[in-house]
Amino acid sequence: MGSQVRLRKLTARFMSTALSVFLAELAHRARHIELAGEPCRSTSHLVRGDVSLPVSLSTRAG
Description:
There is one protein chain. By secondary structure, the protein is α+β, with helices and mostly antiparallel strands. It contains two helices and two strands. The protein has helices at residues 2-31, 55-61, and strands spanning 45-48, 51-54. Strands 1-2 form a two-stranded antiparallel ribbon. The radius of gyration is 22 Å and the shape is rod-shaped.
């Protein structure tokens, strides 16, 4: 019976850690989502139609 208790505690600790990592990643991504209509201030991309290209590629495409 003791091994089942240890397994449950280990599983609970793993799930807690996994949830913490997931939530931290979600928060990180949420900080980088731009609101609709807000200009992007710090990017090196130009937008042409529906495609966003790095400046180096978009200037070559000319």
